[in-house]
Amino acid sequence: MNTPTSIPAVSRFRSFADSRAMFQNPLQILSKYHDTLGDTFRFYLGGLKEAIVTIDPAIVQHVLKTNHENYEKSDIQVKRMGHFLGKGLLTTHGEAWKTQRRLIQKGFSPKQLDALSTIMQDSLTDSLRIFDSHIQKGPVDIYPHMMEITFSMVARSLFGARLKAEDISLVSDTICTVQEFIVKQTLQPYLNPWFEVSGELRKHEEMRVRADAVLMSYIKKRRDEPPSDDLLQTLMDARYTDGEGMSDELILSESMQLLVAGHETSSNSLSWLLYLLSSRPDVLEQMRQEFDSVLGDRQVSHGDVPKLEYSTQVVQESLRLYPPFWMIDRIAVADDRVGDTVIPAGSTVIVYVYGAHHASAHWQKPEEFDAERFVKGSDKLRTPFTYFPFGGGPRGCIGLHYAMLQILMILKELLTKYDFEVPPGQTIEPRAMVILRPKHGIRMSFNGITEPATCVA
Ligand code: HEM
C-alpha cells in the first residue's frame, strides 16, 4: 500500500469567508475550489463542519458502490426527513433498508411499468388539459406546470386512477411546504429552537397529519377493493420471508417517500430539457421525427423506450448538464482508504455530481449541449462513475426506468402538440438547493402546432 497523501484543503477561514457565496451559489464556489485543488479536496461547511468533496471516479465508485456499507446517508435525509416522512427507503440503513428495497423494486419491474403506462398516460391527458388552458393566456413559468404534471402522474401511479384531484393538490402542497421547511431547518439550524416555540414546527407537523389521513383513507379502502395495477398494490402484496405483509403505516410512509423522491427530480429535468430544446431546433426536429417514426399517433409505453434512442440521448445529455441531484452526501462509518486517500470515520463525503458531469478531463467542451455523447455504446468507452445522474451502486435510483418513461411520455406529448420559445429578457440560471432548480423559473410561450391540411379529393 502507498503512503497516504493528505487531501488538499480550503482553510477554515477561506471556507467561512466564502460561506455566504456558498449558500447563494455552491456550484460556483465548489467549481472554483476544484479548479485550484483538484478532484478531491476538503472544506468547512459554513466554516464549521469539515467535508470531503470529490469527483474522482475511483473514490465515487468506492463510496457509492464498492464499499457502500461504510457510507450512510446524511442527517438531512435520515433525521430531518425521517421526522416528517417516517421510516422508508430514503430514511433507513442496513438490513431494514435492504429488505424494503427488495420488496419495492418489484413495483418498478418491466412488467409493472407496462401496466403503469396506462395510468401515467391518463394522468398526463388530464394534466395537459389544465396546462393547455394556461398557455392560451400567454407565456408561463414552466417549472410549476412540470411539477403539477409529474406529481399527479406519480401520485396516480401509486394510489390509482381514482385518486381525486383535490387530494393530489393537498398532498402536493403539503410535500412542497414541508420540504421547504426541512431545507430551512438544515441551512439555518440555529433557528430550530425558534421554530419550536413559534409554532412553525407544529404547523408543519399538522399539515403532514392531514395529508397522511387523506392517503391512509385510500390505503384502508383498498384493503376491501379488488386488486389494481398500481404501486399501492405492489406494496400491499409484498411479503417478508415470514409471510407477513407491510403494515398500513409503513405503506403510507413508503408511499410518501416515493412521492417526494419521484416528482421534483423529473419536473426539474423536464424544465431544463424544454429550455435546452428551445434553442436547438435541429434537435427538436430529430426528436419529432423519431417520435413519429416509432410511434405515429400512439402514445409512449414502457416497451417503446429502447426504440426512442435519439430522444433518450437528449434526455441523458440534459441530465449531464443539469443533474437534479447535483450532489450526493454520505457519512463514513469507519476509517477507510481508497488508493492513497484516507477517509477518517465520521467524515462527510460529498460526491459532487455536477462537477463530475462538467469536468473537462472527461467531457470535451463540457458546457456545450451535444446529445451525440450518448450515442449507443458510448457508455462502454466512458470511465465508470464520470456520469451518474441517478446515483450508483445499491442505493442508486429505484425509479430510473419509471423516470425515463415518464420524461419521454411527457416530451412526446409536448413536442408533438406545441412549438415553444423562451421570450427574451430573462436570466435563466440554476439554483442548487436540495435539487438543481431554475433559480428564477423559466417563462416560455407555447403555440399549438396545426396539423397540415389533408386534401380530400
Ligand atoms: C430524472 C429523474 C430522477 C433522478 C435524476 C433521480 C436521481 C436519484 C438519485 C441520484 C438517487 C440516489 C440518491 C443517493 O444516493 O443519496 C435517487 C434515489 C432514489 N430515487 Fe430517484 N431520481 C429520479 C426519479 C425518481 C422517480 C420517478 C422515483 C419514484 C417514482 C424515484 C425514487 C427514488 C427513491 C425511492 C430513491 C432512494 C433509493 C434508496 O435509497 O434505496 N426517483 N434518485
Automatic annotation (TrEMBL):
InterPro entries recorded: Cyt_P450, Cyt_P450_CS, Cyt_P450_E_grp-I, Cyt_P450_sf, Cytochrome_P450_Monoox
UniProt cofactor(s): heme
Recorded GO MF terms: heme binding; iron ion binding; monooxygenase activity; oxidoreductase activity, acting on paired donors, with incorporation or reduction of molecular oxygen
PROSITE patterns referenced in this protein's UniProt entry, alphabetically: CYTOCHROME_P450
Residues that bind heme: 397
Gene3D superfamilies named in the record: Cytochrome P450 (1.10.630.10)
Record Pfam families: p450
Keywords: Heme, Iron, Metal-binding, Monooxygenase, Oxidoreductase
Similarity section: Belongs to the cytochrome P450 family.
Protein name: Cytochrome P450
Organism encoding this protein: Terriglobus roseus
